[in-house]
Amino acid sequence: MFEMPLSPKAQKPPVLRLVAAYLRSQAFMRLLTILAGGFLCLMIFLITISPKRYNLLVGMVPDQTISANKDVIDEVTTRVNRDAAAAAVAPTYHHQDGITEAVILNLEAAYAEMVAARQYAQTLPDYSSRRTYSRDELAAAHAFMDLIVLQDFQMVTLLNASNEQFDEMYAALAPAVRNTMQGNVIQGQESSGINSIMQLVGYKTNVSLLQNVVLPVLREIIEPNMVVDAEATEAARKAAWEQVEPVVFKQGQNIVVRGEGRIRENQIAMLGSLGLLDDNAIDYPMYLGAFMMVAGTLALAFAALKIITPQAVRDVKSIALIYLVLLIAMSFSLLAREIQLIYLAPLVLPFMLLAGTVGAVPALIAGTASTALCAVMIAGSGSASTDWVSLLSIGIFSGTVSVLMLKNKYQRFYVLLTGTLAGLTSFLLLLATGLLTSMNLQGIINKGLWSAVGAAVSTVLCMAIQPALEFAFNLPTPTRLLDLTNPNHPLLRRLLLEAPGTYHHSIIIANLAEASAEAIGANPLLARAGAYFHDIGKLKRPLYFKENQIGTSNVHDSTDPQVSAAIITSHVREGIAMARQYRLPQEIQQIIAEHHGNSLVAFFYHKAVKESTSEQVDDEEFRYDGVPPRTAEGALVMLCDTIEAAIRTLSNPSQDEIITFIDDLIQKKIQGGQLVNAPLTLADLRTIRDTCALVLHGVFHERIEYPAAPDRLPPKDRLLAQLQQLRKSAAPPVKLPASPRAPEDSGLETKAD
């Protein structure tokens, strides 16, 4: 049996098909937009906080002033100061027992050796106080001296001294050594003890013996009895080292000044630790901190948007718009930092732009995130800096004031008023916080004035950028909708000239839809604009719709019902094409596409059934190929379209009759499944019924019949009478002949749709 080969799509594994489907989905596009926008924000953030690098060496004369971009410790100077403090600490001593006794014993042993050497000399022939000794004789004398080492000339002095001189020397030396050792001989200061003994002995000792014998003996036998306590001394020096405060250069403090002196080692060390030297070193902690800051702030902002106002991040366009506004604000903040006027940064700009494009709540959330990032960018994050706190405060407070002022305000004038109040708020907030924390009133006022100027800059930028954003993203903002509802719009002008019946029909629907939208809390401007443009597709074949058949026959009388139905339903597709051509917002295009839902063109369907003799008529051929409205404004346009067309069948109805009639029409829409997707409650439907009835009752008010103009009137009165007659002929009464078909059939008696 022959088997057909599987298509390449069917041959793909299920996992690959799922991946391919995800890559084509809106969810993937949203993720891609979020990642791309976050990456661009991170790049601007890094460009701003990354310090400029310099090629400097010790000994160079600085050619520019360089300030610390954050608090930095002067490690070199701090180390020098700490070492000096540790060295200045006096050693800690303790008394060493037994040293005095050991010194006395050594003195006695030295005395015995000197006596033995003298006795040897006295045994030599020709001994006298001036005898000259041979090398061998001196060597023999040195052999008796084990403890004390004397030079030859010192040995000669010892050997030639008389017994009286030698005895006087020792008699003075022994008590002097004992007395000195009973005191404190400090380690490292032994020379002081020796000098004291020399002074005591010098009064009674021959000078030659004193210098050539006593001094060498004392240098050999004197030992300190007060020795250094190494552990205690080291602990004291460590404590003194740690007590020295580090030398800190605060953020903004000049490290080197242009033309002043030569660059020192400590300055190079500080610049290196700040990453300001061109040594190709990468400051990984800074980049990691920047990534955490940007990613955390944006993630928190989008989580808040997702929870509080999910419609703001539901499509790619809204996400891209929010990111674009963030990038604009961060770019201008970068410029403010470059010109060193950080309080000139337009921190209020994202609040104002987003309030006028995506709404108040998204503006508050995204504006706060933007202010947090911009404040860190332009003021830094040093622990001693308060500028970023001030910038964050004035940004959030002034931004909140801006959002509250621009909420539901459509006129451009409110942007100017908002900028003025935002600037005043920034100035007063800085003045209040400055008076609480600083005595520099002049500096506070300067910062406040610059922040007010920054709010003015935000206002000017908002008025310049918002129209561009509205056009680029095709947004249904209040100001854009006001522009679209201008009667001079090309499509509305064409409707007025080429399809006047459709134009007036759309005007009435717009009044009904706007009033109903205000009553139920929907967007009245969007409802009005959607009503204006919902039937622009009829411009392709205006005479195929009853409301435009003025003074002509109905072309559908001689047309096959299937062809008529195809022409009637095609006005939706053609309206969407024209809306895209004229770049109407997507929300208005959706209203055009859904204002008939998938309802049945009942008049032509029944006509086809009536004319059919054999085969079954498929009602799908007589239905609109749209879906039931998914927005409140779309549902309002659908209901008001049906109500306006059907209400013409009534002849001078009362208020109660209008309400009952509208109620029946709404019920039929509900039963036909045309409101299944609309976010309308039963209470909303009752409000819509009552509002439409109130508006329509004004349309059906009783007209005053003017008396016929007499034949003979003055020229002026005759002209007035002619003008009155023309007005009556141009605006016929609303009472129209009843249609032979049911009210729910989309009207050929007023318009064939």
Helical content class: 55-70%
CA-based gyration radius:
52 Å
Report how far the terminal alpha carbons are from each other. 54 Å
CATH architecture field of the largest domain: Orthogonal Bundle
Tally of domains? 3
Count all strands and give the number: 6
In round numbers, the mean pLDDT is: 82
Q: Which structural category do the helix and sheet elements fall into?
A: mainly alpha
- Give the uncertain stretches in residue-range form: 702-706, 708-713, 725-753
Within the largest sheet, what's the order of strands? 1-6
Largest sheet: 2 strands, antiparallel
Any idea of the CATH class of the largest domain? Mainly Alpha
Strand fraction: under 5%
The gross shape turns out to be rod-shaped
Describe the protein's architecture and organization.
The structure is a single chain. The protein is mainly α and 753 residues long. It folds into three domains: 93-225, no CATH class; 284-475, Arp2/3 complex 21 kDa subunit ARPC3, CATH 1.10.1760; 481-702 and 710-730, Hypothetical protein af1432 (Orthogonal Bundle), CATH 1.10.3210. It is built from 30 helices and six strands. The strands form three sheets. A two-stranded antiparallel ribbon has the order 1-6. It starts with 7 loop residues before the first helix and ends in a 23-residue tail after the last helix. Mean pLDDT is 82; it is low at 702-706, 708-713 and 725-753.
